[in-house]
Design brief:
This protein is an alpha/beta fold. The protein has a single domain, classed as Metal-dependent hydrolases (TIM Barrel), CATH 3.20.20.140. Helix content is 27%, strand content 29%. It has nine helices and 21 strands. The strands form five sheets. A seven-stranded mixed sheet has the order 3-2-1-4-19-20-21, with helices on one face. It has a six-stranded parallel sheet with strand order 5-8-9-10-11-12. The protein has a four-stranded antiparallel sheet with strand order 15-16-17-18, with no helix packed on it. Strand 20 and strand 21 form a beta hairpin. It is globular. It is an enzyme of class 3 (hydrolase). Its EC number is 3.5.1.25.
Length: 365
C-alpha cells in the first residue's frame, strides 16, 4: 500500500488528509488535521472530446490513440473519450479498431480510453466547422456495425441527419449519449430534441445556430432546456462572459479540450483527419482561418475556469466529476474509497507537480 497526503478535494470539500492506495484504487482517506502543505490533490481530469495530442491524431489509427493517451496523461488527463472526425467510413472503422485495441490494455503512462466520441459523420453540411464534407444521414445498420468495432459512448448528431429521430432513439436505448451539434436547426427543433432522447450539446456555442432574441437557435434552446453540455474553455472558442452565462443556465456544463495533434506541441502545421491545420499561439485553424479544434489541455482548462472566477472546487467538478457522472463512471472523477486512484497534485499556483494514474505516479509537466 502507498499513500499521498496534502489538501485533498473530497466530495465534501478540501480536507487535510492522507489518501491510501492499494491495487490501483483508493483504499481509504485518513484525515490528518492541519498540515503544512500547499499540495492540492484533485481527481484526475476526464476529457469527453479529444481528437489528438503530442503530434498524434486518433484518425491515424495504428499506435496513434496510445500516443494521444500518453501525451494527455502527462498533463493530468487520466481518462478520455477518443474522438473521431467526419471521414470516409473506411477511415472511421480503422480508427475505431485502433482505439479499441488501445483501450483494452493501456500502458502505465497512458490515460484510460473509456470509449469513443463519434463526432460525425451524422452532421449538417451547413455547420461543418472544421469537419471535412463526408456527411451522411443517420443509419441504424451502419451505427450498429461501428458499435461492434469499438465502444461508442457519445455521438454527435445533427437533427438534419436524423429528422425522425429513429437513430437517436435506437442509440439512447443502448445507453449512448447522443449530443446535438454541428447543426443549423431552429429553436423549436432543438428544444424537441432535448425532450426526446438527445442528452447534451457538443462544444456549446460552436458550430451551431446562435442565439438571437427573435430566433434563439440551438444556443437558446440549450440555455433554456439542456442539462448537460460540453464547452471548450480555452478563452478563444468562447468568450468568458458566454461561459459564465452557460454556467448559470446549464447545471451540468463540463469542460472538454477538443484537442488536436497540436496540443502539447510547438507552433506549426499538423494533420487533423484529412485536413491540414496550423497552430499559432493558443489557436488551431484551417487555412481559411476557421477554428479547428484546440491545443488545450484539461490542466489549462481548469486554470482558465479559475481565472474567470470559479473556485478550484467547482473547476475540478467541471473538469472531472461531471464528465464521469455523465458517462455513469461511478469509480472515477472523485476521491472516495473504492474509486480508481487517478489523482493530480497541484501547487497553490495550480502548477502540476504529479500525476497518479491507477495508483502509480507518472510525473508532471
Amino acid at each position: 500500500m502507498s499513500a499521498i497526503e496534502g489538501r485533498v478535494l473530497t466530495p465534501d470539500g478540501f480536507r487535510d488528509a492522507r489518501v491510501h492506495i492499494e491495487a490501483g484504487r483508493i483504499a481509504r482517506i485518513e484525515e490528518t488535521g492541519a498540515i503544512a502543505s500547499d499540495r492540492l490533490i484533485l481527481p484526475g481530469f476526464i476529457d469527453l472530446h479529444c481528437h489528438g495530442g503530442g503530434g498524434a491524431d486518433v484518425m491515424e489509427a495504428g499506435d496513434a490513440p496510445r500516443r494521444v493517451a500518453a501525451s494527455h496523461a502527462r498533463t493530468g488527463t487520466t481518462a478520455f473519450l477518443a474522438t473521431t472526425m467526419t471521414a470516409p467510413l473506411d477511415d472511421i472503422e480503422a480508427a475505431l479498431a485502433a482505439i479499441e485495441a488501445a483501450a483494452e490494455e493501456p500502458a502505465g503512462d497512458e490515460a484510460a480510453i473509456v470509449g469513443v466520441h463519434l463526432e460525425g459523420p451524422f452532421i449538417s453540411r451547413d455547420r461543418l466547422g472544421a469537419q471535412p464534407d463526408f456527411v451522411i444521414d443517420g443509419d441504424i445498420a451502419l451505427i450498429e456495425r461501428l458499435m461492434k468495432i469499438a465502444r461508442i459512448r457519445v455521438l454527435t448528431c445533427a437533427p438534419e441527419a436524423d429528422p425522425d429521430g429513429a437513430m437517436t432513439r435506437w442509440l439512447a436505448d443502448r445507453g449512448v449519449r447522443v449530443q446535438l451539434g454541428h447543426s443549423s436547426c431552429d429553436y423549436e427543433t432543438a428544444s424537441a430534441c432535448f425532450h426526446s432522447g438527445r442528452h447534451g450539446v457538443t462544444h456549446m456555442f460552436n458550430a451551431m445556430s446562435p442565439l438571437h432574441h427573435r430566433a434563439p437557435g440551438i444556443v437558446g434552446a440549450a440555455l433554456a432546456h439542456a442539462r448537460h453540455a460540453e464547452i471548450i474553455p480555452d478563452l478563444l472558442h468562447v468568450h468568458p462572459g458566454a461561459i459564465r452565462a452557460a454556467l448559470r443556465a446549464i447545471p451540468h456544463l463540463y469542460a472538454v479540450t477538443d484537442a488536436t495533434p497540436a496540443a502539447g506541441m510547438p507552433d506549426g502545421d499538423y494533420r487533423l483527419g484529412t485536413q491540414q491545420v496550423r497552430k499559432c499561439g493558443n489557436g488551431v485553424r484551417l487555412a481559411d482561418g476557421t477554428l479547428a479544434g484546440s491545443s488545450l489541455t484539461m490542466l489549462q482548462a481548469l486554470r482558465n475556469l479559475v481565472e474567470i472566477g470559479l473556485s478550484v472546487e467547482e473547476a475540478s467538478q467541471r473538469t472531472s466529476t461531471i464528465a464521469a457522472d455523465y458517462l455513469g463512471l461511478e469509480d472515477r472523477g472523485r476521491i472516495v474509497a473504492g474509486a480508481v486512484a487517478d489523482l493530480v497534485v497541484l501547487d497553490a499556483s495550480l502548477d502540476l507537480r504529479e500525476v497518479i494514474m491507477r495508483g502509480r505516479p507518472i510525473g508532471g509537466s
